[in-house]
Structures are given as structure tokens and as C-alpha cells.
Amino acid sequence: xxxxxxxxxxxxxxxxxxxxxxxxxxxxxxxxxxxxxxxxxxxxxxxxxxxxxxxxxxxxxxxxxxxxxxxxxxxxxxxxxxxxxxxxxxxxxxxxxxxxxxxxxxxxxxxxxxxxxxxxxxxxxxxxxxxxxxxxxxxxxxxxxxxxxxxxxxxxxxxxxxxxxxxxxxxxxxxxxxxxxxxxxxxxxxxxxxxxxxxxxxxx
Amino acid sequence: xxxxxxxxxxxxxxxxxxxxxxxxxxxxxxxxxxxxxxxxxxxxxxxxxxxxxxxxxxxxxxxxxxxxxxxxxxxxxxxxxxxxxxxxxxxxxxxxxxxxx
Lengths: 204, 101
Fold this sequence. Notes:
The structure holds two protein chains of two kinds.
Chain A: H1 3-17, H2 23-40, H3 50-70, E1 73-74, H4 77-111, H5 116-127, H6 129-145, H7 149-166, H8 171-196
Chain B: H1 5-8, H2 16-26, E1 30-32, H3 33-40, H4 44-56, E2 60-67, E3 70-77, H5 79-100
Antiparallel strand pairs in B: 1-3, 2-3
């Protein structure tokens, strides 16, 4: 291994280490669960608003819980640029997933309007799409942050989508279930993180 | 092996605690006191004393700010520090390479 590879490996290790506090898991899981709730109560349009609320909450958690324990680091400009690019791509994919779901839903509703049995079957499978489509975002997070557990979350979301489709449930239940699991994992991680890294008295 | 090789090794860098702090700062833009403490496993006192030596040598820039009401000290590798660390790595590689031959 040459010096450049060694430096890149160390930088990557430090970067990955900053994402193991569990706060992102708590907020992402909470957002999923909260996206599911309005769906269950018949207001699915409120769902996409939730992630926008999650970002400031996550920033507050990072600043108040993580920073005093883990310290603060500014990564290289290349890393920051890459991160912004990934975030924009993930946001774009999220919007595309939402649009795809709405278009598919409308398409099926219009196409099979007269055939109620076929319509019910198709809608049942489309209901499984929201959790499954969100798994793409989880995979993006796994690649961007170098966190393998987000691949497992993607699998969990696909599973939630399948359960929703097979059991003929509202998509909200899939999001609520998967989100709760992710949040609980995040809470366990955060508890371990706080135990491992108590707040130090000084930062100067 | 050149018998004077030990004279070419930078003694400020050639100390495990300082080397680990410099390696950490080499791959990031800046890092604060607590972050370095977590990554290196050194105590606060150790970090302070070693950082003073690195600052005196001109290898590290110390930036003191406030985060909210709390003071925050962060460190940045200077171009001189970056160059010296690279030279040190090259020297050590050569020395260890000669030793293996």
C-alpha cells in the first residue's frame, strides 16, 4: 500500500466513524414511521413533508449529543463536494420515486377503472411500492456514508413492501413498521455511543 | 545504509503521539480537541503538550473559537507541517527499505 492509498484509507475510516452515533438512524426511522402515519389516517400527501422536518432535528441532535462526545471535524473539500453530490442525487432519487409511485397509481386507476377485481389486485401491489422504492435511498446512504447497516435497512424496506402487498395492507403500515425497527436500532446505537464516549469537560 | 540517517529524521514528528495526531490532521481539513482525543486515545493534557510542540515547529495552526458559549479549539495542518510529514514518511520508508535489504 502506498502513502496515498494509506491516507485515503485513514480518511475513509475517520469519515465512516462519524456516522456510528445512531442519530441518523433514529431520525431516518422516525421520518419513515411518521410518513406512514398520515398514510394510515388517509392523508398520504402529508408524508413527503416529514423528511424536510427530519433534517433540522438531526442537525440539532448531532450538535447537542454527538459533537460534545465525538468532537468536530471538517473533512477535505473533495469529500465535501462528493457528499453534496451524493445528497443531491439521493434527493433526486427520492423525488423520482415519489413521482414514479404517483404516476403508476394514477395509470392503474385510469387503465382498470371498469375492472374492479383487476384494479384491486394492481393497487394491492402498488401499495407495496413506497417502502420498496425508499430502499433505493437507503442504498444510496449506504454507499455515501460507507455504512453497511443501511443495506440491511434497504432489505427491510423491500420486505416491508412485500408484506404490504401480500397482506393487502395500507402502505403506511409498511413504512411505520420499517421505520420503527430502524429507529430502535438507532436508539441502541446511540445508547452505546453515549456510554462509550462520555462528554469531556473541556474542548480547549 | 547511510550511518547518518538518524540525523535526517524529524524528531518533532518522530514521536508516536505527535505522529498519530499529524496523521489524523493530514487527511482532514481540521479537527477539534475532542475529535483528536477520541481518535488517538490520548489524554487532554497529552494533546495540549504535544500540540504546543507542533505549533512551535510551525506544523500545526491552532484556531480558537466559540461554539455557542463554549470555547472550542481546533487544529489544522500547515503547508509546512504537511510537507514535513511527507518528507518524514519518505525518509522512514527509505530507512526501513534499507533495513530490509
